[in-house]
Amino acid sequence: MHFDAPLDLDSGARLEQYDLVYETYGQLNAEHSNAILICHALSGHHHVAGTYEGEPRSAGWWDNMVGPGKPVDTRRFFVVGVNNPGGCNGSTGPSSLDPATGKPYGSRFPFMTVRDWVRAQARLADHLGIHRFAAVMGGSLGGMQAMQWAMTYPDRLGHALVIAAAPSLSAQNIGFNEVARQAITTDPDFYQGDYQAHGKLPERGLRLARMLGHITYLSDDAMMEKFGRELLKQKPAFSLDVEFEIESYLRYQGDKFSQRFDANTYLIMTKALDYFDPASETEGSLSAAMARAKAGFLVVSFTSDWRFSPSRSREIVKALLDNGLNVSYSEIDSSQGHDAFLMENGHYFAVIRSYLDRVASEVGA
Amino acid sequence: MMRADLEMVARWITSGSRVLDLGCGDGFLLSRLRQTKQVHGFGIEIEPDQVVAAIANGVNVLQMNLETGLSGFDDNSFDTVILSQTLQAMHHTESLLREMLRVGHEGIVTFPNFGYWKNRWQVLWGLMPKSADMPYEWYNTPNVHLCTLRDFEDLCDLIGAQVMERCVIDVQGQPVSLWPNFMGSLAIYRIRPKA
Question: CA separation (Å) from B22 to A170, A294, B136, B185, B187?
């Protein structure tokens, strides 16, 4: 979908024109009341569910959650997945060609905020004829977008499902993001972000960034459970080659990611995470920041998630209670760390399912 | 069909008020109170299955551990805080009661009366009491702080709570006025901080 009207960004910059790539699942009902928007996290995109014809390995990133008969049931809901601007999966981003120059944006692509994304998503909703979403949902950075929807467009959503999110990043979290960014920007192939113009890709940096990310998205327990201290061979080789299972896993994940993802997009996404802090606009009060919200909320956290810990979700719950909003909160027992929001878990899925059952009966889906 | 104590609790709730139900289970009471009294209610529950059931019942439910207190709630942020048949299973009984009266203008507490004559009778015969209200063996009961009406009123006194109303019922759910600490199986108290 091409948008000709410029998008004014929080940074003061402007995206003169842009494309948004999106997918939809299920049928929009006659009243246009049964739409659910799925917001993606750092490395996600518009391909939320299902597989492409003839590509059995192309399952969407939230395929266990979204689909016919799944917690987000596409037999009842019309589900929209969109790749945010700044992304690298089809929507306009740093690796796209700048129509003004005919060359990739590279370092000239503006930084984005969560609110910029939400504004872009609202324009897509206009185009799809959706005035009001039955629900907007997402995990991690996607959960922040659901929160932002409730603040920016209080009348345009019935419910916000905020999963494994936080009202802002902690200093530790920003620190992790900065190490990831440094890994990318100090790669000799980075060329200040204009690597495409030099025919290079900062794959080593992006690979390191992803390896660091993977460590922090899992819990110590989950890693030990999954990999332990297993060696690939029987004895230590006293070399720097891959020896432990965990090394092999991280290298594999890093390699895979660095081949499919754009380094500038990674920088933009982590910066958007760092900048998200609605309370900063209301003298530090999250309750005041949420005062405009009208949606019903479901807030979900995971016990072993130390990057977006349950206590941060409880801050969100507190702000919602202060505003007299309807909110339910579930703290899912899981050893999977932050990644738990992407994994199948009986209690987690039952919570989402029963909440969305309610939403469905409200909107006649 | 409503549990007899819940029927009593509902009578003491003002229409349109803000209600917090501690240990709300599947949200049955809150869902009834919303229908009959249009309350704006929240429940706290720790059991995952009950949380799912409460969500399904359309109730605002917060999965939290009562033993760690109500620190997420501001002073006087609710009109009534309910603790229905949960008191006896709490470890930090005293601090929870104090928290109830900090967060709510009023509290409603219901619990099985350990002083009920059938309980006393079983103890007299050398057995730990079992009943419809306390259907557990001594080795698997979740109840750790059982008390009688007098015990509870002593604690209220200690923490500066005033008993506004009291209702004691028997196993048939009928109100008991004669020798309540002996004849009543279940106690329902309406309390508030002493002025």
Answer: 31, 25, 22, 21, 17
Distance from CA of B34 to the nearest CA of A (A): 13
Note whether residue B109 is domain-resident: yes
Range of B188's domain? 4-114+144-193
The CATH number assigned to the domain holding B175 equals 3.40.50.150
A321 and B42 within 8 Å at the Cβ level: the answer is yes
pLDDT single digits (tens) A233-245: 888 888 888 889 9
What is the count of structural domains for chain B? 1
ipTM, 2 dp:
0.91
* Chain Cα centroid distance, residue B195: 23
Scanning the structure block, which residue is given the tokens 């289970």?
Answer: B25
Gap from B40 CA to chain A (nearest CA, Å): 8
Q: Is residue B65 part of a domain?
A: yes
Over the stretch A83-125, which tens digit does the pLDDT of each residue have? 999 999 999 999 999 999 999 999 999 999 999 999 999 999 9
Give the pLDDT band of residue B1 (cuts 50, 70, 90). very low
- In a domain? residue B70: yes
Do the Cβ atoms of A158 and A187 come closer than 8 Å? no
